[in-house]
Fold:
Amino acid sequence: MGAIYLIRHGQASFSKRDYDQLSPQGIEQSELLGHALKTRIGTPDRVICGAMKRHRQTAHFSLAQMGLGNAWDTDERWNEYDHEELIVRHKPLYANRAIMLADLARTLKPRESFQAMFEDALDRWVGGDFDHEYREPWSAFRTRVHSALDDIVADGRASTTLVYTSGGAISAVVQRLWKLPEGEWRKLNRVIANATVTKVVFGRRGAFLSTFNEHSHFEGEQQHLLTYR
Structure:
């Protein structure tokens, strides 16, 4: 049996103008993840990384703790959906970032308010009624992620592969392997923590989910590092 370890990136920079970079906590998460992976799997046969900055940074800091360099194959199919476009399609006024931040600042819990608004934006995207408004509709996003997974399974060159990606892509894989309805994707996406591991095993009978959102490296003394956004 082969194994694919889907790694969600460390915490990105929420509320910063450049979201697509790790926060200081995201760097620490990535390093701790690397320690855990070194103990768990040793040296992988192959490393694949999405093309986003937060993917590459998570790979860099975790692989360094494994005694490995920045040697990976880049595959843009593991990139996340465009969350900024989803927000603007749902709330056109939020094309002006200052308006969005001002609206959130007026709430008692800005992060919770953002999450509620964003989940409505995700529902609109996944629903399919407005596909013509998006550069990449949900159906296209799902198809590209599935094709990236299928190519790893079909390749057969590596028995152990690390894939640095995002929560939406991981959720699309899990939804497929568990044969869940479309609407369940968002529930999966909501609970995936930063710098966590989802393991897919594969062989002659296909691919199967082994573990989902595993984050034992953030338990005990390290529980303060557990984040979801």
